[in-house]
Structure formats: C-alpha cells, structure tokens
Protein 1
Amino acid sequence: MSDFEQVLIENGVPTTEEAVTEEFRTVLADSGSTIANDSSYSPFWRLISAIATKPVMWLVQLLITNIMPQFFLKTVGESFIELWGDSYNCPRKQSQFLKGRVIFTRENTSGAFTVPAGTVVYTDLINNTVYRVTTDLDATFNDGEAGLIISVTSESAATAYNLEAGYFSNCDLDGVSVTNPNDWIDQVGADIEEIEAYRARIRNAFNTLSHYHTDGVYKYLISSWVGVQSDKIWFEHDAPRGPGTANAYILFDLNAPAESYLETINRQISTEGYHGHGDDVVAYNMPETEHDLITTLYFSDTLLDEEKEAKKVIVYNAIYSAFRGNAAYEVIKTEPFSRFSFTNLAGELFDLVDGLEDIEFSLGSIVSEMSIPTLNSLEIVEG
C-alpha cells in the first residue's frame, strides 16, 4: 500500500472496490432507496454496482498514481517537475551543443588550401557509436602554413561529445590530419538535465528562502551551470584561508572547460554577496591524481587477430570511461572519497567483451579523498 493510498484511507476515502461498494450501499440506505434484489449473483445488482464503483475506482487510482505525487518534490514526475522549478526560480538545464576547436595539419605546405565550412571530423567507433563535429567556417592554409585551429560544433546536443584529447582524429580530406587538443572545449555539450539531478537542485533552492546561505545555496548557485551537478560539489569548511573562509571543489562532467567556468562562478559568488558558513568562498576544480595503467588481456585461442585488436579498442575505451574520459559505457566511475576497485572493473569488462579469459592490471585499488583519479597513460597488451 502506497503512502498516498494510506492518506486517503485515513481521511475516509474508499480505495478498493469492496469499500466503494459498501459505501454505495450506505448511501442508498441513507437516501431511503431500497433494492430488494441485491444478491451478488443478481445481474441487475452487478450492473448497478459496476456503474457506481468503476468510475470511482478510476478516479481514486488516478488520484493515487498521477495527481497526489505531483504535490511533493520527492515524487513529482517528468510532466510537472518544471513547474516546481519555476516556483523556486530554478529552471531546468536544457540540452546544449558542444563548441570547441580542433587542429588541422597538412603534409604538403606549398600553396593555399581551404578547409570548407561543414567539414566533418569524427572519432573511431566507441561502443558502436561514431561521434562527429563539423567546422563552423571556411579556413585557409596560407602558403607554407602547416597547421590551422578551426572552431567546430557537435552534430547533436549531448554530453557524450565532451571527449578527451585525441578522440576526434579523423577527417576525409586527403593529406590532412586532425586532432582535438587538450582544453579544446569552449562550450560543453549537454543532455537535458536528468530528472533526479533536477530534483536535487530544486531541493537546494529551498535554502535560498533563508537569510543565511550555507552549502545548499552555494550548491544551487554552482550547479546552475551546464556540466555541473549538485552531487558533484564538495566543501572544505576548515577555514583554509583563515577564519570565515571555505572552499568548494567541483567535479566537472568529462572534459568541461573548468578554468573558464570557475572564473565565472567565483565572480558570481563574490559579486552577489552570498554569505553564511564562509564570508569568503572560492570554487576550485576537483584536484586530480594521475595514474599510469597497463592492462594485460588474455584471449581465447579461438579468436582471430583482427577480433583481438577490435576487443582491445573496446577495453581501452571502457577503461577510459571508468576514469571519466568518455561517457560511452555504463561502468562504475572514479569518485572522490571512494575506493576504485579494479576487481569490479574486470567483472564489467568480462560482461562487455566475449572471448576474454583473464585480465591483469598493473595497479591495485585506488583510494581517493578530496581528489579524482585520472589516467596519465593507458596501455593495453596481450598476454
């Protein structure tokens, strides 16, 4: 029995066919009406009872399953949650196209050569998906010029395009190579905000009604940015810069342009005068720890060499996904204040890749505190 059904019962509302039928009999008796043939076997009585009870049951179930849940933030559904957000000046974050810059390099540097607007730059296959970005404008190599930096926009509005350096490495121009460098993203790609993340932001917005601004208000402010979730913000309250100071550490989604975001976030905090647990609050990117990982794969002898190479690519991308290099695989991600288990990762890889007989990692479990484990290098070898 749901809480909503219990509320109705406690307030005298019948919620079962038996209870509605009994209430119908009571109303008939109170009104002075008499039906002599009220046997449960009587077709006439069954018809009258159904006419009276069925519409009531439809309305009661509609009330329990669709209407009452919308009155509470914890249970409000997709159709009404944005009305809750509007009530607290907390609009839902919408989907957004990635915008960034890639580097084109040509082999023959003699003469001028134009890379036309709309040129497609794409990744290798990542979990059965190829991600594409297109150039925004015509760009020309001058005579003797070997490299060009050209702005690009993602094919779709999605978080999955926020890939690390080196993923966008293909184009169909003869004699021209391309790559996305470090810090290549100017505007992160984003999916529409998931309902649970939005629910958490609205809950944080409750705190803005108070005159005192503590963690909840700072989370509400910081997480309003695309690429930041409220449950990916951690606070250091121990006066890191003296009395009245606090730090907020943010774990950005994938390869978000953290420095430019932090500059804007900190400017907004300082100019809008949020105060509370710390009169001086500064937002920082979550510190990273870098790790070199060698993964040894032992394959079944029945696999062809081509099959083994394809499976190495899958393992490579799945491990990078676990270390937040891409969002293409449903694997357990590294987190601050946690233990990252390579035993669990091995189990996920076994489920993902057929033909693996064993997996060895050069590292043991990684225990993190106020930091996020990342990969400095990843090598996949065959045992």
Protein 2
Amino acid sequence: MRLTVIGTGYLGATHAACMAEIGHEVLGVDVDPDKVAALRAGRVPFHEPGLPELIAKHTASGRLRFTTSYEEAGAFGEVHFVCVGTPQLKGSEGADLTYVDAAFAAIAEHAAPDALLVGKSTVPVGTAGRLAAAYDVEVAWNPEFLREGFAIEDTLRPDRLVFGVGSRRAETILRTVYQPVLAAGTPAVTADFPTAELVKTAANAFLATKISFINAMAEVCEAAGGDVTKLSEALGYDDRIGRRFLRSGIGFGGGCLPKDIRAFAHRADELGVSLAFLREVDAINMRRRDRVVELARELCGGDVLGARITVLGAAFKPDSDDIRDSPALNVAARLGLDGADVTVYDPAAMDNARKAFPLLGYAVSAEEALRGADLVLHLTEWPQFRSIDPERARSLVRRPRIVDGRGGLDADRWTAAGWRFSALGRPAPNGEG
C-alpha cells in the first residue's frame, strides 16, 4: 500500500521506516524543511539504535521518501498516519492538541475521499470522535506503544496492536497495513474510539504508578532501615505483580509518562471523574529528585557550594538522547544553582544537554568527568556506567563518594574499593552513613 506519515519526529520517523520495512511505499511529511532534508540524506536528528540504518536502506531503495508538501501527500497516500506531538499546555496539565488539529486539517484538505486518516499520537479521550465529526474523510485511531531505545522492535514486533475504528472498512484497511505484523502472531484489539485512546493513557498511568509505588516503598525503607532492592526482588516473584518497572531510583522522566499522566488526570477532571492518585504518583516521582539533592548536600557536609560534583547521565533513560524532563539534568541544574561545580557526561545526550543547560560543565568521557570529583551521582542507567571499575574511578576522584540514583551499581564492589556508597531506599553498606 501507499502510506503517508505526518510528522517525522521520534514516532513518525520510526513508523515511516518500519512501514517501509514491511513492504509499503511510504512518504514522510513534515513542515520543517531542514528535518526533511536531513532525513532524505539518511540523517536522523535523534538517537535511536538501528533507525539511521533502516532509513538509509529504504531511502536508497526508493520505498521511503520525505516531503514538506501536504498536496503531494494527499495525492500519494491511501492511508495517512498522523504522528505529531502532544506536549503539555503551558500553564496547564492538559495536552496541547495544536499540532494534531493542524495535521488533520492539512491532510484532510488534500486527501482522497476514500482515504483513511489514522491518529497515532497520544491524545485525551474524545479527540478521535471530535476529529471524525469534523471531516468528510474517515478517521481511525491506532495508538503507539514505543519504548525509546527499542522503537524498531516495538513497531515490527509489538506486544499488541489496537485499532480504534468506526467501521468494518477501517478495520480491514488497518489489518491490511499491518498484515505482516499480524501474521507473525501479534494480537490485535479492535475497539471504539474512546477505548483505543484510553489504552495508551491507561497503560502509561499504570506504568507510572508502578514506578512511583516502589519509589514510595523506598521512602518507607529509608525511614525504617529496610532495603528496597530486596523488597522489590521479593515482590517480583509474585506473578500478579511481576518484576518489570519495579526497580526504585530517581524516578521517570522523558516526553511521555510525566505529561501523559498529568493530561489524563486533567481530562478525567473534565469528565467529572477523579484520578487524584495520579497526582500523588507525580508527586512521589518528583520527591525522588529532591532526595538525591538532599543526599548530595549531606555527603558534602550540608552545603554543595564549591563542591565538584560529577553527574553520570543526562538522558532520561539509557539508549536515548532525549533529555525532556530528565531527572538527571534536573538534579544537576539544581545543584549548579546551589553553587556546586557540576560536570555531566552522557554517551548520547551531550549536545542536547548543552543546548538546554549551557551553564553546566560537560566532559568528553566518564573518566574526564570523574577526575577531581568530590561526589559522583549515577543518574542514568547506561551499561557503560555499570561497567566502570571502582578501583580505577577512585584513583581519579578527589573524594570517593557516590550516590547510586538508579539502583544499578554493585554496592559491595564499590564499598570494597574504598567508596562511601549511598543509594535510594537502601541501607549503607557496612553501616556507613
């Protein structure tokens, strides 16, 4: 089939490349001519493993092209996927639907009468129905469930597909689009518009709640002298609970979970339903950042003024260069405002971090970042940081003190190498403070 993908950011570029990979002819559409030029040249303006190679493969074959023209897109596509962002509204918890509304209006103006417009953006429940009523072209909703760092895998081999449709025809078209994925055994759920929209927001709310639950347990462990890593291990053996998303740490960030749970609670309020627990989920998440700042002050004698602090991590998660609502950079910036000399290192997110936080210091390697440090904060769980040799690291720093904000380091190994080791929700090794 001939598909267009409106919006070539993280979601759109990935979806376009993967649809070409399963055999479709794809035209990516974006209003940013610089982004389109970069993608035509095979350059991807963000970090996602395997995506540059996939885009280069299919632009070279001619199966994947990019344009700024909605007129060209309307003439080309049988199915149009809208993959634009829904950021948080300034001054509100709600979602900003400016880009979604503009994309639907632009493609609907040029689409063929029998085309199908498919939303993939995460939107407040009720959006699909409103858009379907606004245009003569048929609308469907097909929410995305991508994890940064695993986006290609999650598109080609998802754990489920959700089709929000208003007709059997729309369902048939979507099943045709995804036929190779469905043939591989991926389950599909066909639903009405509101249910399809709610699947994504409910999934994000559940995951955020699970993360904040174990972080709340970390707070209890800190107060009671317990060990949250052992607690989560024991809970994870319960099949009803499971181990995934049950590791405590500095909390979640990124461009999805924080803004999506706020928008979900806001929309529920509009519908007369209270999801007040999601605001506490958000509050618990933010308190974990506060706790890392408190630990840094404690380990620096009550005041970080003049202390040289190394922050390992800038992206909100490993295998990404996304710094949106990054817990690591939030902590780094706050310590910098308190007078600390902060140096940041991240394997992928350095350029983005420099642009957003130009007053922080940056190193070209972990070793350079560690040199002369009074305190080290491990705040993004890159595999490279877990493999740092504590003995070698101790020879580089001025004072061997580390806070593991992600629960991924071997406390005994670091302590044996002479480090004062602190972690969220865990007692200090050997009874150290």
Protein 3
Amino acid sequence: MNPEKESARGLAQVEGYLLWNAEVDKARRQARRFTDELPWLTTAQRDDVERVYTADRVEAGRETLTRIAGRALELRGEYAARYDRLRTRCVAASVLFACVAGGACAVPALLSR
C-alpha cells in the first residue's frame, strides 16, 4: 500500500477518535450541569440521571454523525458525476475549438493555391 495514503488514513482515524472522545466528554459535562440543577437528587439518582443523559446525548451525536457521513458520501458521488460531465464537455469543446482553428488556418492556405 502507498505509505502516504496509509499515513493519511491513520491520521484521519486518530482525528476521528479524538473528536468522538471530545463529543463524549461534552455529553458528560452537559449531564453534570443538568444534575447540578437538581440538588435534591441522591448520589445514586444523580449517577443514574447522568448515565442516561450521557447515553442519550452520545446516541444523538452518533445519529447525527452517521447522517452527515451518509450525506457526505452522496455529495461525493454527485460531485464526481458533475466533474466527469464537466471534464467531458471541456475536452469536447477543446477538440471542437482545435478543429475549427485548424480549419480556419487551412482554408486560406487552400484558397491561396
């Protein structure tokens, strides 16, 4: 395998891991802030609420990331198709221009004979 691609893939995985851990930490902080607003909870209740709240936020984050990743793949396909069509048009226009320019240069030469 190409070492540069392998390195890029590894870096992307590390970045994803770090971003996901930051998301989980954020959910835990939000859960702590939420339970801080409920001072009447016992320690066990507080722990349960934080666990459930964190799990809910993590699942919501996972669903959002899954939806975003799916949309990114769709867009990649759409843009690749658009790029292919544009490239085909540009090549066709270039060939047509070359033919017209060549013909325009050839006509005076043929007429001058």
Protein 4
Amino acid sequence: MPRLPADPVRRQNRTGTRDLLGKVAVIVGGSRNQGAACAELFAERGATTVISYAHGEHAAARTLAALDGYGVRAEAIRSDAVQSCDVNTLFKGVVARHGRLDIVVHAVGAFLHKPLAQHTDVDFDLLIDHNTRSAFNTLRAAADHLADNGRYVVVTSAVASAGPGPYGLYAASKAAVERLVSAAAHELAGRDITVNAVAPGPVSDSIYPGIDVPGPHSRYARSRLGQPEDVAGVISWLVSDAAAWISGQVIRVDGGTA
C-alpha cells in the first residue's frame, strides 16, 4: 500500500528540523507501537519512510495515513521478518524504488511471561524466531543494503540484562541480539555504519497494555510505564548525525527501573 504524497508538510514539526530530508528509512515492524512512533518521527524530519508488517493490515493503514500528514514519501509493505527471503526482497525493493537505504530500525518481537521450565517447544520457536532470527535477518540484509554512514537500531529489552525472574527464555532471545549488535558494529565500522540496540523497560503498548500501572512506591522510578514515544525519541536521536560516534551500544530506556 504505497503512498507518494507531494503535499507540503501539514503537521507541526515537534523537532523543528528536517534533517532527514533525502534519507530513506525502513522500520521493520513499523505498523504499531514503538515502530509506528519511530516512523512518525522519521517522517516528521523529512525521511522517505517505509514500514513493514507481517500481519495487521488495518494497523498498517492507520500508521500510513499518519505518515501522509508529513508530506513525505511513505509506504507500508507486507513482509515477515522471520523469513529471510521476505527481508531481502523488502530491502532490495526499497533500494530499487528510492535509490538508497540509510536507516533500518528493527522493532519486531514476541513476549512470554512464564518460568523457564514451563516453556514448550512451540514457545521456544516463537521467541527465538520473532526476537532473534528476525533481528538477525534484518541485520544481515542491512549490512548488504545500507548506504555508507547508515544507521541500524534494534529494539531489545531491559530484561535481557536483568536479574532472575520469569523471563528466562525471552531474556535469552533478546540478549543474543545484543551480542549480534556488538559484532556487527565492529564489522561495519569501516563504512561508518553505526549499529546499536535500545533496551526499553516496560512500555504500555499492545504487547504490554499496562494493566498493572505502577504506583508512587513501586520499583518504577518515574511511577509510570514507558510510552512508545519514550523509546522512539532515543532511536530517533541514534539515527541523527549527533550520534555518529556511538556504535555497538545497548541503551536502556526504562525510566530508572530497578
């Protein structure tokens, strides 16, 4: 469902800058939650913005309509990040249509909350496929298709480095991605491509709806759950020139959660 609007920007620019004009960004899993928030920030700053989604066409259409309001080129492409052929086709298509690829954000994932011994084989496949394999697929394809001085950011989780708890397999699937980030940052440094991870704490979205809203004496330092925009703001900064000297890092975005 491509959109190639030529209208001037109609929404107020919150950042006051169009520093991503001429850049092409792909947000894998950009139809909702943190991915959609990133897409809006990139479009607001002038980037040609492509979101991909594996399912949920209505959510993708809503996000695409929001991107239209910024007067940039925007597309929503159905693509399953768990399938390497889908990811390669997605990136090749973006470069063919828009001439380049400068920014890739990976915001795909699955979450399960249960003790390790209670996980089934199906649970294992779900978490490894959606959290680890999908990130590997996009990182490998990004290495082939990103322009020099490009940016890759993957959303992991603060749980990956947390202490014991009922998140063992989920944490392991995210921790593996953070090791890939470290390796890729080293391998792509010669092309001035930065590779980073953003590790949110609990974020109120469709995956974690925020039923247990923290109170003033909870372990959540800010006494609230994070919002997708809290995470997107950090990702938006990481793809800017101001963050050009930051690579191979995992940045926690958790409001000081203990």
